[in-house]
Design goal:
- The chain is mainly alpha-helical and 239 residues long.
- It contains 11 helices and 2 strands, in the order ααββααααααααα.
- Helix 1 runs antiparallel to helix 2, helix 1 runs antiparallel to helix 4 and helix 2 packs antiparallel against helix 8.
- It is globular.
- The two termini are 37 Å apart.
C-alpha cells in the first residue's frame, strides 16, 4: 500500500493524475516495485520466512512513509487536497478504463489462490503434515504471497488506501463459513465488494452534497470490529 501511495503521489505531483489511467497506473507500478523489493530482502536461502518477510515489509514501509511525508510537505495546496483524499481512500479516482486494465490482475490473483485452496486447507494442519501429504509448502507460500500482493496492488491503485476491509471481511467470512478456503476465498471477494459499495453509498449520502472519503466509513466500522476481535480471542484463550 505504501508503494502504491508513493507512485500515486508522484503521479499527482508530476501532473500525470490528469490522465484517465495516469494515477492508477503509477500507483500500480509503485506497488509492484515495492513487492519485488520486499520479496528480495524477505527471502533467505531460497525460502520464505514469515518473520523475515514481515520485517522487510515493515522496514520498506517505514522508508516509503518517510517519502510520503516529504512529498506532502513540498506539495502545493491543490495537490495536497488530491493527495489527502487518495490516501484516505476515494472512488472518485476510479474510471472504467483503469478498472478494465487492472481487473485482469485481480482475477489472476484470485484464480491462483482459489486453484490452491485445497493445499491451503492442508497447510492449516501444520507445514510438516502438509509436506507429508505432498504439498510443496515453499512454492505454496510464494504463490500465495505473490497472489495476495498482486490483488492488493491492483485494488489500491484504483481506489486509494481503504483500511480495515482486509480485516473485517475475511474474519467475518471465516466466522460464518469456517476455514475452508474453497468457500472462504470467493465469499470474501463478493462480501468485500458488497461492503465497499455499501460504505461508498453511505459516504456519498451521509453529509450530502459533501462527499466523504470511503476510507473514513470503513475505518469507523473497522476500529470497533478490531477491538471486538481482540476481546473475543482473549475470551477464547481464557476458556
Amino acid at each position: 500500500s505504501s508503494g502504491a501511495a508513493v507512485g500515486a503521489i508522484l503521479a499527482i505531483l508530476l501532473g500525470l493524475g490528469t490522465f484517465s489511467i495516469g494515477l492508477p497506473l503509477a500507483s500500480f507500478l509503485g506497488a509492484l516495485l515495492t513487492i519485488l523489493v520486499v520479496f528480495y530482502f524477505g527471502r533467505q536461502d531460497g525460502k520464505i520466512h514469515p518473520n523475515t518477510l514481515l520485517l522487510a515489509g515493515v522496514i520498506t514501509g517505514s522508508f516509503l512513509s518517510a517519502l510520503i511525508m516529504f512529498f506532502i510537505s513540498v506539495s502545493q495546496r491543490e495537490e495536497l487536497h488530491t493527495i489527502i483524499f487518495w490516501l484516505m481512500g476515494d472512488f472518485s479516482f476510479s474510471n472504467a478504463r483503469a478498472i478494465l486494465i487492472i481487473f485482469p490482475y485481480i482475477l489472476l490473483g484470485v484464480f491462483f489462490l482459489y486453484f490452491r485452496s485445497r493445499h491451503l486447507n492442508l497447510i492449516l494442519s501444520g507445514e510438516e503434515n502438509a509436506v507429508q501429504l505432498g504439498v510443496d509448502v515453499e512454492k505454496l507460500k510464494l504463490i500465495s504471497y505473490l497472489s495476495a500482493s498482486l490483488i492488493t496492488a491492483a485494488s489500491v491503485s484504483v481506489c486509494g488506501l481503504i483500511g480495515f476491509v482486509g480485516l473485517i471481511i475475511p474474519h467475518s467470512v471465516r466466522l460464518i463459513f469456517g476455514p475452508d478456503h474453497r468457500l472462504l476465498i470467493p465469499s470474501a471477494a463478493l462480501l468485500g465488494a458488497s461492503f465497499l459499495i455499501a460504505s461508498d453509498t453511505f459516504a456519498r449520502t451521509l453529509l450530502a452534497p459533501v462527499e466523504l472519503p470511503v476510507g473514513v466509513i470503513t475505518a469507523a466500522f473497522g476500529g470497533p470490529f478490531f477491538i471486538y476481535l481482540l476481546r473475543t480471542r482473549k475470551a477464547i484463550k481464557t476458556l
